[in-house]
Hints:
By secondary structure, this protein is of the alpha+beta class. It has one domain: 3-Layer(aba) Sandwich (Aminopeptidase). The protein is built from five helices and eight strands. It has helices at about 20-25, 40-60, 110-120, 140-145, 170, and strands at about 5, 10, 60-65, 75-80, 95-100, 130-135, 150-155, 160-170. The strands form two sheets. It has a five-stranded antiparallel beta sheet with strand order 1-2-3-4-5, with helices on both faces. α1 (about 20-25) packs across α2 (about 40-60). The longest helix has 18 residues, at about 40-60. It is globular.
Amino acid sequence: xxLETERLILRKLExxxxxxxxxxxxxxxxxxYLGTPVKTVEESKEIIKMIQKQYExxxxxxxxxIEKESGLLIGWCGLKxxxxxxxxxxxxxxxxxxxxPEFWGKGYAWEAANATLKxxxxxxxxxxxxxxxxxxxxxxxxxxxxMGFENTGEFEDSGVKCSWYELxxxxxx
Length: 173
Ligand SMILES: CC(C)(COP(=O)(O)OP(=O)(O)OC[C@H]1O[C@@H](n2cnc3c(N)ncnc32)[C@H](O)[C@@H]1OP(=O)(O)O)[C@@H](O)C(=O)NCCC(=O)NCCS
């Protein structure tokens, strides 16, 4: 286990999470601002492998979010070390999250992201944590702003207009 909140457990993704990951990433509603939905469980297995490699190489990555009450994987949340530049930033920590629609609207994104930020500042000793979202993704932009992130500009990622966010440790802790 990496983190525990009142209602959630955040832990590393495991091979056995593939079916739940597929349920999430094959859903067009989830992927509305994120790209093409995956089509096979095999693709989800490959994604899990890629993230597991990031844990090994970078010491961090997106984590499975487990709802304590049901024991189910309900999404992922975590800090990814950017290895390819995004908006000109590289080797910086990027906060990300995504959840299965059945679990939206319960405050889980906020709960998971808040715990993740604490971990980033306290355990990974980040000075600044970054995030970005499709400019049209109201929910995500709202959550980032509510968490204290500062919107420092817009940029294009693969032709999509995105908002860029930064949160400095002194603003958070
Ligand atoms: C965006 C997403 C993570 C929100 O998850 P969630 O668990 O429903 O969010 P929460 O319940 O923690 O909501 C936190 C706040 O955001 C608001 N919010 C959430 N989704 C919203 C939306 N679509 N539009 C406006 N506000 C929204 C909530 O009302 C809540 O506000 P409050 O705290 O003032 O009451 C979820 O919809 C999702 O997984 N979407 C698909 C993947 C995605 O877009 N990920 C982000 C990529 S940058």
